[in-house]
Amino acid sequence: MAKEAVLESVTMLLGDDGILRIRINEGARISLAQAKLQYETILRMCGDARVAVLVDATGDHEVDKDAQEWAADHTSNRIATAVISSKPFAAITLNLFISLFKPKSTFKLFRDEQKALEWLREMISNQ
Q: pLDDT, tens digit, for every residue of 51-68?
């Protein structure tokens, strides 16, 4: 049975396939407080299990630098994270996030949701 959480900046859905889908709300500004709330919500939804995460970052949004830094340090409960975005600077932004903050799990950018899901399923089966 799927679990869902609706927060100020994101909507989360943990599917029966074990993939946590996070949609960043249009116009959201993710502060450090929001990042911490999202992490606590993920822990409540997933418990101690490591989870594959699909982030829909297609809408306009901002993530504060301190939120990025904190979030990168709190990704060890993730198998992998697939980020979906077709924005022109999405690859630069994600590569900069990875270079600066060195998250504890693998991140990869996709333009296509189906390819992102295929990759996440592969990452789940390889763990």
A: 999 999 999 999 999 999
